[in-house]
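Here we describe the complex-level prediction in full. Unlike the single-chain runs in Section 2.1, the four entities below were treated as one system.
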Amino acid sequence: MAKKKGEEFQQEKEIFLEHIQNAGLRRTSQRDLILEIFLKTEEHLTSEDLYWLVQKKDPGVGQTTVYRTLKLLTEAGLAREVRFGDGKTYYEHHYNHEHHDHMICTECGLVIEFFSAEIEELQDKMAEKFGFTPTHHSLRMWGVCEACGARKRELQSAPSGAQPRVRVKSGVAD
Amino acid sequence: MAKKKGEEFQQEKEIFLEHIQNAGLRRTSQRDLILEIFLKTEEHLTSEDLYWLVQKKDPGVGQTTVYRTLKLLTEAGLAREVRFGDGKTYYEHHYNHEHHDHMICTECGLVIEFFSAEIEELQDKMAEKFGFTPTHHSLRMWGVCEACGARKRELQSAPSGAQPRVRVKSGVAD
DNA sequence: TTGATTGCAAAGCATTTGCATGCTA
DNA sequence: TAGCATGCAAATGCTTTGCAATCAA
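The structure predicted for the assembly as a whole is:
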C-alpha cells in the first residue's frame, strides 16, 4: 500500500514522455501531475472529475490544460474516450488494459465492463462481409443492473434515494 | 412514383396520432409536416437537416419545433437516435425497420447498416451472466469502407476530393 | 375557454480557441 | 532565445428553456 512517489506506473510514464518527445512537445509539471492522478484513479472520469482531483494538489491548474492533456494521453495510447449517453466524455485507462465494452445501468449509473472474444470475432466477420476494415468499435448496452432489478422488484413505487453517477438522458440510446 | 399526398405511411401516421392522443397532446400542421418529411427521407438526418427540408415547404417552422417533434417521434417509436461520433444526433426510421447496428467509414462518412442475430444473442448471454437486463444497445464500428480502402491503395498520397458527410473528430471513438 | 404549441431569443453545457504571459529545451 | 504550454475569457456548436402570442380541442 505504501509506495514511494514516482515508483508506480513507470511504464505508462515512459510512454508518455516518449510520445511527448516524438511529437516535439514539452514536459511540464501540469502534465506530470495530471498523468499521475489519472493513473492513480481506476475509474471512468470526465475531464471535470479529473480537474477537481488535480485542483486538490495544485489549484493553479486550469480546466483547459486538463482537457488538452487528456487528449494527449489518448493520443499516446494511455487513455480511451468513452461515452455513456449523458453527453459527457469519460476517460478510462487504455494501456495494459484489455479492450472491453460496457453495460450501463440507467437506474444507478453503474458501469459494468465486459469482454467477449466471440462477439469481437463475429464483428470482424461482419465487417469482412462488407469489405469494411475496422479500426475500433464501441458496444454499449443500457438497462437495469442486478441490484437495481432486485430493488425495483421489492419496493415497487418508492423513489430511489441515491443519485446515479451517470444519469442517462431521455428516451433513447447514446 | 406518383402517389397521392397522404396515401403513404398510413401506419406510421396512425401511430403518431395515437401517441399524441394517449399523451394528451395536440395535432398541429407543423408536426404533420415534420413527420411527413421525416418519413419520406430514408437517410440518417440531424435535426438541422430536417429543419432545412421543412423550411422548403414551410419557412415559418422553427428549429425548436423540429427538435421537439423529433423527440416526440422517438417517444412514439417512429424514430431512433444514433450518433456517429461527430457530436451530432442523427435520427433514423425505427418503425418497421429491423434493429441494426452501424459501421462508419472515417474516410468518406459512409454508414453501413448491418444486423447479426448471433451477436445479439451473445450480447444477451453476456448480460445474463452479469444479471443485467438490457433495454437497448448500440454497436458501432469505425474504419475504412471498401471503396475508400481501394482508393487509398491506389493513390497513396493524393488528398481526397469529396468531404465526408460525417466527419469523425480527432483520435478515438465516440 | 383552456391549456398545449409555437417561434424567437436567451440560456445551458461540454468543449475548443485566441491570446498575452510563462516556461521548457 | 524560440516556440511550445498555460490559464483566462470568450467563442463555439448543439440542444434546451423561458415566455408571450397562437391555436387545437
